From TrEMBL:
InterPro entries: MazG-like_dom, NTP-PPase_MazG-like_C, NTP-PPase_MazG-like_N, NTP_PyrPHydrolase_MazG
Residue ranges that the Swiss-Prot or TrEMBL entry lists as coiled coil: 173-200
Family to which this protein belongs: Belongs to the nucleoside triphosphate pyrophosphohydrolase family.
Gene source species: Ruegeria arenilitoris
GO MF annotations in UniProt: ATP diphosphatase activity
Keywords: Coiled coil, Hydrolase
PANTHER family tied to this protein: NUCLEOSIDE TRIPHOSPHATE PYROPHOSPHOHYDROLASE
EC number: 3.6.1.8
Chain's gene name: mazG
Protein name: Nucleoside triphosphate pyrophosphohydrolase
Domain NTP pyrophosphohydrolase MazG-like: 37-110, 176-239
Pfam entry (one): MazG
Amino acid sequence: MAENPLIHDTDAGIERLLEIMRRLRDPDTGCPWDIEQDFATIAPYTIEEAYEVADAIERQAWDELKGELGDLLFQSVFHAQMAEEAGHFTFQDVVRAMSDKMVARHPHVFGDESRDKSAEQQTRDWEAIKAAERAGKEQKGALDGVAANLPALLRAYKLQKRAARVGFDWPDVSHVLDKIAEEAAELEEARDQMDADALEDEFGDLLFVIVNLGRHLGIEPEAALRRTNAKFTRRFEQVESRLATRGKTPSDSTLEEMDALWDAVKTEEHRANGKLPPVATGTGA
């Protein structure tokens, strides 16, 4: 098979990537691994790459972000190539559909509507346009279109937002806090009964209400938990490092010892972030 010069043209842009993908999937000369893949086997990689993009952004690792965005773009190209082979659609169809959607959803930029409106009004207009799109797809229910395979916390958040749009929502945070107390008591009751199925059910209910609290406070739960995961990792690694200077590991340390180091790390972080006053360094009497 003759080599397409496009593959080695570093200035060819997206067309070069599309040609590389076509070659990788060529049944006669392509890569055996790429040829064997299908939508289901590639989907987990797509999700993973999206999270790696989010991680690079959270760490402000801008050089890494370029590569991670490329990896995510390649996932779209991979799916589009498989779709074209199956006769479903092409990559250009994907681009056209997205472009059409963005133009339709921004009439205040690409149409005759005025841009002179608040962010809140733009959000309401956006939701109205999306509702009309769902109606066109015969998605009649308020919760239709919320993807089932979203991370559970994110899906809970989106489900609650959809329900709130049609009035199914607590009026203020105090009601949510009362519900958290109620669900915590039910979880404790299930624990006392040692009913594993009921325990999981009540734990899920408590998580769901916690997500609702975040929504009422303007906090996106997935982002908040990622932030806490990063904080826990950072602090625990500091505990491990300080134990190592003593010739120890967490496995051969007591909980009290690790707790003391954890508190020290936490205090130092708070002081460095201005949450605590600096340590006094006076010369004394």
